[in-house]
Task: structure prediction
Amino acid sequence: MLDETAESVPVMMVNSKPEIMSLPTLSIPSLQDAIASDWVAAEFSGLGGSSGDAVLAELAKGPMAGPELLEAILPAGSVLVSDDASVQNMMVVSVRGILHAGSRYRPETQIVLKDSDAVVYVLAAYCMEFEKENPSNDTRFRLERPDSPLARIAKKGASLTVPALQAAVWMHTDSISYWQMNEKFPISKQDWAAGQSVFQIGRAHV
Result:
């Protein structure tokens, strides 16, 4: 079993960011719809961590995409279903950047495909099944639509520490206690309280 104490994989960040013209928000499809319509071809894989910058998304234009710039939105709370039943599914919080130069990524929050070349995005994602194994580098995922309570947790918890947000997710999916989490993923009482507050917000609308 992988080390559960790691908050995220060692992906480095660089500071160059190109300017991109965006289409009106209403014209931008979700990544789920873009994949279903064959506008985007996608492969999702783990990075060996349970929380934080833990998933890669390799995206390219699909057979139904035209020559024009293509944008897609990955909604917070989107679910990544593992191809191995013994490995945890994951919840996506956000797009973090574009991978390049080995373990480095350029910060980017938009999914933009300009031509036929594939682009590899780093995603912030959190495990959803406390009792199962962490994803490994060999884990592959299938993207599904957002879970509504998890979407609220992802949005309200975006500023939390990695342990606090992971706690909020496992509170929702597994009803874990503070002591259970500390056996697997060390967390301070302050972070636990912060995660619990966000979890309550997500649950209040169920």
